[in-house]
Design goal:
The chain has 325 residues and is α/β, with parallel strands linked by helices. It contains 13 helices and 13 strands. The strands form five sheets. It has a five-stranded parallel β-sheet. The protein has a two-stranded parallel ribbon with strand order 2-11.
Length: 325
């Protein structure tokens, strides 16, 4: 596809995003919400963290997204012995030219799959901070731009699993969303047994979009209207997390910005040209929960303390009137 073509229409946006959702959905059975969230992260220029127990399809989802888009893809298997230079790249001395040459690391791709990111040390995890925030890597004082678009899809196992390290707060804040796959229902699991006994579903995927098409989809989503009332509602939700006695660490300004960006894509995927408050509340947990820390000693029966606190915040923060957005 030509990257210099005209801006796309709403119909073209729906057709292209539907093709991507269908392509990924053919591999990830019975998880349309996870697939939609992953696409929203890509089009909102964010990064996705998929957290769940082993064997539920975290890496498969990341690879299905990559296979559905004709873009450069690199996979990094995070292990305890992985070094920051393996991720970002290193400068190597060239005896012929008598100067140092930069050898790009695995992060130099449009889609980077950071597999089991919390099995490497925090030092290695932090190698992604500049890349995820600024789209560049600085090594030995020289800055190297990353490809555009740039998406990190990271998978991690829950902290109670053996051999895992907690992601630093700064690293968690770089991820636009955190989602979980969950176990498939009985019908989806039975279908998986029949279809994948001898065939790899990823092998059957052909790209339905390229980097240029993704850039045009991103441009369309950026233009979705957000009224001042909805912006104020997003700020009110963020500020409520900072004042909540049940939370030790509230949402950052980056979280507020990413909530609105994700809501724009959410609205576009629903066929709307404007964001409504429901877009914000639907995305509040996947965008905010992984960034927040519960206050010490806070527990909620039947729910995670952070998710429970966010539910209470949604209940008490005033929603703008329909006439204002």
């Amino acid at each position: 596809m030509d990257d210099t073509g005209p801006e796309i229409t709403a119909e073209q946006f729906r057709a292209q995003t539907s093709a991507i959702l269908t392509s990924v959905g053919e591999v990830i059975d019975g998880k349309p919400d996870a697939v939609r969230s992953a696409l929203a992260c890509l089009l909102a220029e964010g990064h996705l963290l998929i957290e769940d127990v082993p064997g539920v399809g975290k890496t498969m989802l990341a690879r299905a997204i990559a296979a559905s888009i004709d873009a450069t893809v690199r996979r990094i298997q995070f292990t305890p012995d992985l070094l920051p230079g393996d991720v970002t790249g290193v400068s190597v001395y060239n005896p012929v030219e008598r100067e140092f040459e930069f050898k790009p690391g695995a992060v130099f791709a449009q889609i980077v799959i950071a597999d089991e990111i919390n099995r490497s040390s925090p030092k290695t995890q932090s190698a992604l901070l500049e890349a995820m925030e600024e789209g560049q890597v600085t090594v030995d004082g020289r800055t190297h731009p990353l490809p555009d678009p740039f998406l990190v899809v990271a998978t991690q196992n829950p902290l109670e699993m053996e051999g895992t390290y907690a992601l630093p707060e700064a690293q968690r804040d770089r991820f636009m969303m955190r989602i979980s796959m969950g176990y498939p229902d009985a019908a989806a699991e039975a279908l998986m047994l029949r279809q994948r006994d001898s065939v790899n579903p990823l092998a059957a995927i052909t790209p339905v979009a390229d980097a240029g098409a993704i850039r045009r989809l991103i441009g369309f989503a950026r233009a979705v209207h957000v009224s001042s009332a909805v912006e104020e509602y997003a700020v009110a939700l963020s500020q409520a997390t900072r004042a909540d006695p049940n939370l030790h660490l509230g949402a950052s300004p980056r979280a507020t910005l990413q909530l609105v960006r994700a809501a724009k894509v959410w609205a576009a995927l629903d066929g709307r040209e404007f964001v409504i408050p429901d877009d914000l509340t639907e995305l509040l947990v996947p965008v905010f929960a992984h960034r927040l820390l519960p206050a010490r000693g806070v527990h909620r029966a039947g729910a995670q303390p952070v998710e429970a606190a966010l539910g209470q915040i949604v209940d008490r923060v005033r929603v703008p009137l329909a006439a204002r957005f």
